[in-house]
Every structure is written in structure tokens, then in C-alpha cells.
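Translate structure to sequence.
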């Protein structure tokens, strides 16, 4: 089964020696979320206007601010131009965009990626290391506490340990003939370049990105979940072009996801002995469909950019 781990969410901590010896059911590789029942709505998180004017409400508001403006609000931990909300749309509220209300209630959970049971705080740490190409704030830091409080609040009323419809990036069937990078480039230029630039560079106003870069030094690194073509295809199909999710075909979502991830980006911070091949064998060979360590247009991907 293809791994469905929301974009941006990978762990910063290494597995302990003890954890590596324990055979556990992989709770993170859950079955795909059930389809939304006809005429029903996705889970609805609370509204900010309903937050109390007390210490808890303040912490939640601070968590939201960090989530939507991570590059500035947590700058010491971010190494690129990304914000959490770039991959978890509508401030972490949007169904089929790995919403926070669908994630918070599913932890603690075992993750194959680091072979240990992860807390929700550890999961957030991974976002900073991989999706933000930065460093992980301490588990007991204000940043982690604030984002956790925001996630907890968005999940108000959600059942604990139940896979809700819309909680992940949905599975998109790979085209029968596989992905086509040339077709992906066509789709990108027709549908994506207007927002993300002809060369995936994103768009800035001043020093801040208003539309995120999709590859290059300011994008997510080779360890982020979005580097998997199957994960990116699910996100793209249901959410892109922005405001027009569901307008691409399944095949074109795969093609453009492959094209996006056929470009160089920051190195996987788990690089082993400076070797792309060793790193691919350990971390990427069984991690969905990805191009890390593959030769594209005569160049091996995974060398990284600074």
C-alpha cells in the first residue's frame, strides 16, 4: 500500500536502538480515509471568534500565527521559504489537505519512517526538519506548545483514534503507463507556472513568499513527504490549481507531481556518509514513488542545493 504521510510531516529525532528491535504494527499506515457520505459535510473545526479571551485562547492564536507565517514567526527553525499552511491549506482546516483536525487525534502512533511511536509534538518537529528544511524546536518549546494547542483546538469534537474523511492527501491511482515528465511539464506550464513561476521559484512580495517555491533552495528538502510523487499527486489533484481543486485528471496530477519532483531541492538531512546511493537504499527505496537517487536527464537527483 502506498504511504500517505502528510506533506510536510516527518520526524526530526532518530530511532532509538531499543525501538529498532521491536516489531510493531505500523499504525501510521492506516487505510485510506473513508469517502465522505453523500450529502454530508467534512468535519467542521471551530471558528476563531469562539475562542475564549484567556491564556488558552491566546496560546491557540499564537499557534495559528506560527502556522500561517512560520517563516517569520519561527524564523530560527526554518531554512527555506515555506510556511506550514503551504501544504495544509486554509490555516490547517481544509479537508483532503492533511488538516490538523484529522491529524491531532491520531497520535501517539508508530511511524515506519523512524521506527518508533511518535507523539504529536515529535511529528511537528519533523515538519521543521524536512518540510521547512530547518531544525526542530524543543518538544517543550513555546513554538511546539502553541502549534499543538492550535491543533488540539481545531480538533474540538473530533473522535479520538478514528480516521475521518478528508484527513489525508487522498490516494490517486498511478497512470497505467506510469508518469510522463514531458506531459507533466506541459501541465505545469499550463496550470501551475502562473502562480509558482516558470522555474518553480514561487512568488514574493518583498522578502516573503506569497506563493511557495516548488523546487530549488527555498522549497522542501528531499526528506519531506511531498517529495513522494504519489503524495504530491494526491495533494495536487484535490487542491490545485488553487481554488480549482479536482479539475485536473488523475493522470495529469501524477504527471505534474513527477515533473515537480524531478527537480533538485535541498539535500535529505539524513544523508549517510555523503552518499546518495546509501541514503536512497535506507530511506527512499521503499518510500512510495520518488526520484531521489534516480538519474533524470543525465543527472542523479539528490545532490541538493544550497
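Result:
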Amino acid at each position: 500500500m502506498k504511504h500517505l504521510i502528510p506533506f510536510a510531516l516527518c520526524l526530526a529525532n532518530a530511532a532509538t536502538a531499543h525501538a529498532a528491535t521491536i516489531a510493531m504494527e505500523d499504525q501510521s499506515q492506516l487505510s485510506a480515509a473513508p469517502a465522505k457520505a453523500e450529502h454530508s459535510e467534512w468535519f467542521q473545526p471551530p471558528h476563531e471568534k469562539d475562542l475564549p479571551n484567556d491564556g488558552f485562547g491566546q496560546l491557540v492564536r499564537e499557534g495559528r500565527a506560527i502556522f500561517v507565517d512560520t517563516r517569520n514567526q519561527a524564523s530560527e527553525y526554518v531554512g527555506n521559504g515555506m510556511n506550514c499552511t503551504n501544504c495544509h491549506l486554509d490555516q490547517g482546516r481544509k479537508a483532503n489537505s492533511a488538516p490538523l483536525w484529522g491529524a491531532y487525534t491520531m497520535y501517539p502512533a508508530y511511524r515506519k519512517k523512524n521506527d518508533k511511536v511518535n507523539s504529536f509534538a515529535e511529528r511537528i518537529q519533523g515538519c521543521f526538519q524536512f518540510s521547512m528544511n530547518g531544525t526542530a524546536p524543543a518538544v517543550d518549546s513555546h513554538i511546539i506548545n502553541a502549534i499543538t494547542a492550535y491543533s488540539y483546538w481545531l480538533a474540538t469534537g473530533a473522535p479520538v483514534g478514528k480516521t475521518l474523511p478528508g484527513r489525508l492527501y487522498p490516494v490517486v491511482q498511478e497512470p497505467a503507463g506510469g508518469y510522463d515528465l514531458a506531459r507533466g511539464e506541459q501541465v505545469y506550464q499550463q496550470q501551475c507556472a502562473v502562480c509558482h513561476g516558470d522555474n518553480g521559484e514561487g512568488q514574493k512580495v518583498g522578502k516573503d513568499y506569497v506563493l511557495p517555491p516548488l523546487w530549488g533552495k527555498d522549497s522542501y528538502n528531499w526528506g519531506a513527504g511531498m517529495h513522494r510523487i504519489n503524495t504530491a499527486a494526491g495533494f495536487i489533484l484535490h487542491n490545485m490549481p488553487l481554488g480549482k481543486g479536482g479539475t485536473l485528471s488523475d493522470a495529469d496530477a501524477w504527471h505534474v507531481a513527477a515533473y515537480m519532483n524531478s527537480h533538485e531541492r535541498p539535500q535529505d538531512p539524513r544523508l549517510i556518509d555523503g552518499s546518495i546511493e546509501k541514503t536512497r537504499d535506507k530511506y527512499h527505496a521503499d518510500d512510495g514513488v520518488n526520484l531521489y537517487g534516480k538519474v533524470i536527464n543525465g543527472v542523479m537527483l539528490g545532490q541538493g542545493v544550497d
